[in-house]
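Here is one chain, start to finish.
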Amino acid sequence: MGANVSSPEQRFQVTNFRSRKPWTPQPEIYPFNVNSPRIVEIKNMNQWKSRLNALNDTNRLLVIEFTAKWCGPCKSLEPELEELAAKYTDAEFVKIDVDVLMSVWMEYNLNTLPAIVFMKRGREVDRVVGVKVDEVERKLHKYTQSFF
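Its structure:
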């Protein structure tokens, strides 16, 4: 009837807590690759404009993830987007930190994070706000298959 103990010898074992190593803080470990080669992090306005202009004349889908370092839901969405970026290689994925490029976030009239904006030929075709992975994948499938 001992709680969580498998043998009588283990029930009466005494643990010396003083001999343990002192606790030291560990760096924060994320379950995803921060510097993903599949999702390009846009770090300044020039980089954003050149990426946007390069895709204006193509039929390639641009998937813009608006995120922030302090946003918990954004962090939970990140590994899912990594998988989708690996699956939908014909789309281009970029990530914009709203604290770094607030003007781009405001240009799209967004007020909730995370937000995913889908663009084709220089114009917005759709968006998903919140952690809705199934909806993001449906829209990815839809817009990577279309040729408008």
